[in-house]
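Lab notes, practical 5.
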Amino acid sequence: MDAKTLAYINLHAILGSIPRLCEMVPEAKKLIEGKDVSIGFDVKGGPAGTLVFKNGTCTFVEGADNCDVKLPFSSPEKFNGLIDGTTTPIPTKGFTKIGFLLKNFTKLTDILTNYLQPEPSALKDQTFFNTSTILMFHLIVEALAQIGTLDEVGKASASYITDGAIRLAIGGGPAASIKAKDHVLTANHEDPGDDYTSSMEFGDMKIARDLFDGNINAVAAVGQGLVRIRGMISQVDNVNRILDRVALYLG
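Output from the prediction step:
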């Protein structure tokens, strides 16, 4: 794995899931009620982004220049250590709001971990199952875009993707798209409607989850009609090649 690509995934896909977590999970939403604080992550030689907590909502914005609490990292490897628990960053600003970072934000990341790496017993609850699967879906879409743009193997597959939008969806659930432009991939977490060049739709939440967890074979699922593909097949084929890299990075 490439450390820089992993850093972009960790910031945009992993930490970038926190706004959606706060929307969907009451326990997470309660932790940010009445809070007005922003946390910036600035990675030397890598990504920079800020989580903004305000009016009971959370948003993610590019860059880390305008934030209340700033966490600098000297390399992508150091930032990746934050995600796997081997690095403890020291803020360069925002010590008066360090309480939110150490308490509320830490609890948010713990809740996120529970949904992204759930105990099998937790998935027996339908609400938890659906929320976990939706969070995983959007995480995978974002990771796919980052890998196709930054990872050398991913870029090789992206070089064959014709300009256009690839719609990804779960039947009865969320939809998103990957926009390809000059072989650079960008994730759009809204349903593109009919504005797409090709489409891959998982039959339902359970089928999507089984594919995410590696419990069923993607090719077999297509053959059985569990996954529906439309439009420019070559686009979907190369996106699927990049999805193989997503499994490697997300472990």
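Observations recorded by the TA: The chain has ten helices and nine strands. The chain has a mean pLDDT of 94.
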